[in-house]
Amino acid sequence: MTFPDNLTYTKDHEWVKMDRDIGTVGITDYAQGELGDIVFVELPQPGKQITQGESFGTIEAVKAVSDLYAPVTGEVLEVNPNLEKTPEIINSDPYGDGWMIKMRVKNAGDLKNLLDAKKYRELIGK
Hints:
The chain is α+β, with helices and mostly antiparallel strands. The protein has helices spanning 29-35, 82-85, 89-92, 117-124; strands spanning 8-9, 14-19, 22-27, 38-42, 49-50, 55-61, 65-69, 74-79, 101-105.
């Protein structure tokens, strides 16, 4: 399991990678492993406003359906078009091709509520 140091993490197992005011969001390697084979992802439309800590979509695996929680507040700019036909790329590349949404972050202060890689590893006991 990997947890890149250039990302920040939620306690609900999402990650965000910032590039100025644009955040790319996905789920962690730990989360995809716990879910098992991912078969469907429901994501918001571009333009939707999402709030830190609130559900912005769902992810369905063979084992379970789980909510996805926004790591920061902002506007959805783009959803990963590849996930519609091949959601299983989240299993094979959760930090790369398996990203879910790109968003314009409204409040950079939201990042203070997130965990760095070390604290996230402590949270999940890895």
